[in-house]
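REQUEST ID: PR-0412
SUBMITTED BY: lab tech R.K.
PRIORITY: routine
TASK: structure prediction, single protein chain
INPUT:
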Amino acid sequence: MNNPIRWAIWATGAIADKFAADLPLVADAELLAIGSRSMANANAFGDRHGIPRRYAGLPDLLSDGDIDVVYIASPASAHCGDALTVIAAGRHVLVEKPFTLTLADAHRVVAAAGEGGVFLMEAMWSRFLPYFDMLADLLGQGVIGDIRYLEADFGMRFPADNRLFTASTGGGALFDLGVYPLQLAHAVLGVPTSLLASGLIGPTGVDLTTQIALRYPQASASLQTSLTVPLRNEARLVGADREIVLPKFLHCPDEIVIGHRDMSGGDLVVDERLPANQQGNGLHYEVAAVHSCIRAGSVEHPLMPWAATLEVMAMLDQTAGQIGLHVG
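STATUS: complete
OUTPUT:
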């Protein structure tokens, strides 16, 4: 067996807990260290997950020469600066989504990784789940023919004290939830020829609800996200006669549904249900992908290459500009 790849986690929020819980599912992964701005938080997190080394502050964490790769789970507003710091220390890095809050910052991080020769990937974990491989295979087989229309939404009603209502840390529906419908549209349809967005900015300066219309040469997409309205949290990929449905939740569904409707719409007539079960929280699949690249000496992964991150960031950037969302 190969020597383990030694991980550190930077920040101790909810997504970091899920990541730490899933890491043991990857045989050659070792969770060596946890870092936080608060030593108390680092110790509490380390105790929960049995992590031997704990550090207060990112520079102290990076002073540990045994760390191979850092998972950045800090607030979105800190992603750019934290990623640049990790890259400057010569470590590989997995950055939680959204990659950054602006396209300009995303270019800075990608350029730094290219110059430093380290592995870098946005933690768009959905692209590494079992359902995503199945979806790609179904589309490749032409099960529904060419996609003519894509509809996807992701929204919930969050309490007013939720972190997503805090503008200073990169909150809002678009960057936390809306990135999932956007990345799905990008994955299956590519870069749109046009994007038209509208949104409602709340009193704290974050977008509460955002709608995005995408146009492609032979298709269109309608996307929606919200912090205040419970949506269906599903996706439909519609072909000439049949469609694929990704049920709740669209970014990590337990099954893929193939079906059809009559010419006037109506309820979906199900032709087939394909189980798409995942282990754990689903975050270890991206870890295995990171390992394969590090061991091969690759600096990016073909399922989530730097170009894909930059293209999705460009769509986020354009949407934010159109709805008057001020970030960064």
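NOTES: The domain at 5-125+281-303 is CATH 3.40.50.720 (Rossmann fold).
REVIEWED BY: pending
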